[in-house]
């Protein structure tokens, strides 16, 4: 069950509700506010979709994540890269309390290289909230970016079979979310 490849990166930033957010571009705004499965949307933009597991196991989480999750730990953390045609497009961080790793939601800890989106958008998952942010410049997530351009992300609290979990999706520079707008272009 434990895959710890490296220490988790986290997803630090000033998370805000969408109505309090100033969008840097219409294309990025569309990606950040997309209501459906990000996995399905990424698959529409590439020939080959894949996942690289970076970290999976029990870990401490940041105070802002505890506040957003509204549930006591310990916490199962999964960090992955979502890749399109071999390029890193999204860094994703999922957090689920140990108490939620029972029943129908237990599959979250057994995904291996399968996307979480396939569980969340099959009728058992329900998005409760969404927040957006620009990732802190000192974040370890930047090790997966080929440039130092600002990285933007979204974070959602879901219920999966009535079990809470938190999912952060950070768009990396090669992602289509940054393409087509001046000042936010991919590297």
Would you write up a description of this structure?
- This protein is an alpha+beta fold and 187 residues long.
- The chain contains 4 helices and 6 strands.
- Strands 1-2-3-6-5-4 form a 6-stranded antiparallel β-sheet, sandwiched between helices.
- A hairpin with a 2-residue loop joins strand 2 and strand 3.
- The radius of gyration is 15 Å and the shape is globular.
- The N and C termini lie far apart (37 Å).
- The model is unreliable at 1-5 and 181-187 (pLDDT under 50).
How many helical elements?
4
Sequence of strands across the biggest β-sheet: 1-2-3-6-5-4
- As residue ranges, the low-confidence spans are 1-5, 181-187
- Assembly type: single chain
Number of strands: 6
Name the helicity range: 10-25%
Q: Which word captures the global form?
A: globular
**Which structural class fits the helix and strand makeup?**
alpha+beta
Instruction: Bin the strand percentage.
Output: 25-35%
Topology order in helix (H) and strand (E) letters: HHEHEEHEEE
The radius of gyration over CA amounts to: 15 Å
What's the N-to-C terminus distance? 37 Å
Average of pLDDT: 81
Report on the biggest sheet.
Answer: 6 strands, antiparallel
